């Protein structure tokens, strides 16, 4: 659960008070021991909508569950155990509000600010839109849940083809919102404008979809996609059953092939930033590459590599039993003992703490993902596949991933199969500097137009 770490701020009061609308962006910068936090609030009174962003904690556009602005402001974020409230009258063009989070309470002064860079998303669709959009509910009978989503349908296209969008790791809503980008909203808009119906759903147990996300594996998500394909095949709009496909990004590029092998109604796949090696190899390589590029101490990188590689090997060579957590903890301790680092500092680091690390790697999703190997399913996929990757993708790095991916897709044998690598694109297929996740927010392009154009060019061959 995300928690804001807000400590101290000195407020100076002045008597000048001017009443005016609170709509727009408000900003304050807080100094905390060893760091600072920049807090943005976006208020929209007409829509009763308030959004919180804390860039340093990668919290973007976080929607308040409650927002009142009549005689006073009240903005609540229950999942953060936080609320912000006080007078809605400005003081020297500032709002002075009380930030309340658990035992911490502090007045903060927020000043007006221009639209921040992370809200500059030129590819986001702007109404009126040249297609219809409807909210839908889709039953996955085997799982006993209903998925909530949005279906966009092009106008004046008889029996259009259809595409299902599948997100990557982590609980994602139907738009796959990430650091101000509405990734799937942009892709759905592009494809629908070009004649394709597009279905995008909240992940199970997320937003309006039913189910328990924490207990689900990649295989479970594949059944959700299969249910969506059945839904499209039976839809009264009459989609072209010979052209119902799946577009998956990252882990979604593993989910999509698995779903296609259990549902013959899926007739093509687009795999964005998809793995061609085991989930364990992806986790180990991305840990090393990202830590190195971020300039972490080489000795600490070596210890982290030892832990990651040792735990991955153990999980891939054993089954699930009560001894697994103890074994993971033992590997952690052994690597830490051998490492030439400040062990006390390393143990206190919450990113690599033994308890957290063990819990994460002993979870149902992580165990399944670590063992999942594309060589066990990709060669069996006989429908057309397009795979697109970028050279600055640090999560699924081309140096580790590309040759195996290309070979597996070649083995699948469909003459329409194609693999493409774009230079200088990151995991989201945006032009990037280093490819770090932290860069996403400051990149205004949600997905490079040349990637969208390539997808459409390939789709027209089907």
Kindly report the spatial arrangement of strands forming the biggest sheet.
Answer: 5-4-3-2-11-10-8-7-6
Shape annotation: globular
Main beta sheet strand tally, sense and closure: 9 strands, antiparallel
Which whole number gives the mean pLDDT? 90
Total strands: the figure is: 21
| Structural class determined from secondary elements | alpha+beta
Helicity level: 25-40%
Helix count?
11
Uncertain runs are 1-18
- The separation of the N and C termini measures 44 Å
The amount of beta strand, in percent, is 25-35%
- Provide the gyration radius in Å: 24 Å
Q: Could you characterize the architecture of this molecule?
A:
The protein is 30% helix and 27% strand. By secondary structure, the protein is of the alpha+beta class. α2 crosses α3. Mean pLDDT is 90; it is low at 1-18.
Compact overview of the structure:
This protein is α+β, with helices and mostly antiparallel strands. The protein contains eleven helices and 21 strands.
Strand and helix layout:
Elements: E1 17-18, E2 24-32, E3 35-44, E4 49-54, E5 59-63, E6 66-69, E7 72-77, E8 82-87, E9 90-91, E10 94-101, E11 104-113, E12 131-140, E13 145-154, E14 162-166, E15 177-178, E16 181-182, H1 183-193, E17 197-201, H2 218-234, E18 244-249, H3 252-262, E19 268-272, H4 279-293, H5 298-317, H6 324-338, H7 343-348, H8 354-361, H9 364-371, E20 385-390, H10 398-412, E21 418-422, H11 449-459
Parallel strand pairs: 14-17, 14-18, 18-19, 19-20, 20-21
Antiparallel strand pairs: 1-9, 2-3, 2-11, 3-4, 4-5, 6-7, 7-8, 8-10, 10-11, 12-13, 13-17, 15-16
